[in-house]
Amino acid sequence: MKKLTLLTLLFVTLVFFSGCSAILEKYYTPVDPNDTSEVLFTVPSGASTASIGSDLEEQGLIQNANAFKVKAKEMEVDGQMKAGDYKISKSMDLETIINKLVNGDIFVETVTFTIPEGYEVRQIIDKLEEEGLIDRDAFIDVLENGEFDYPFLEGVDRSYRLEGYLFPDTYTFKVGVTEYQIVDRMLSRFNEVFKDEYYTRAEELGMTVDQVVTLASIIEREAKIDEEFPIVSSVFHNRIDIGMLLQSCATVQFILQERKDVLSYADIAIESPYNTYLNAGLTPSPIASPGELAIHSALYPADTNYLYFVTKETNDGSHYFNETLEGHNRDAQKGN
Question: Which of 51, 143, 232, 257 is the most buried (most CB within 10 A)?
Fold first, then answer.
């Protein structure tokens, strides 16, 4: 009789624990599979699995704190959850939540900004300051004095504040990013774009990297349509080859710090090393941040004999290209 009682007790005990397991497993499922809205959940430093489970249950993100603790043990990750801020929704099951906390898949608040192609350093500074991302003086100090180890900066005069090398792109940073980190990321992006073959090609052309970037910046400011970038480049290469003035309006606009649509005779008579109406060759430094197309075009110009170009009357950014001044003047009169 005693033996039967023991067997009965053992059977009841097994059924009880089996039932508890089944009950807990019911709580492994999401609170609400259809609610995908995310809630910011913080795991404090040193928090135990039990306390994390209690906080999750209190915020309505899981159904049962005990089930959370049991599931963590089943997954053999008890005590391995990392501190930080996480985005969690009620549509997540326990395994998904636990994996997120163990992997440290934390939510990081970020900021994103875009630097358009053809922006000058002054415009980049203004934009970042307006968006509250930098201290202006600190940013300028980094441009002039920060230490960066990139091959393209060899021989570059830092007094020009890295004009041309802050690569135009869309960037995402963690909130609290420093001025140095912003500059370094932009230089790193330039380093990615300026491939090894570009250094070789620059040598073939008898140009330094800085000269290539300077020419690319002028092309960036003059060309408007993608297919014309190599052609505009060919005009400037051809002019340089014969010692002809570049006569780029963009270089005068750089002096003026104003993008005037029409330059006056007084504008193009301004005494400045950046005035390519008065000085042969390239400007002392780039005049803007060129994009990848402009850089490639500076290195690989189209094969033409063009020496002139003028904007078409269609106002779509396209140009007429000519080999002779006579043809250029004729095209310049179209639409007048």
Answer: 232
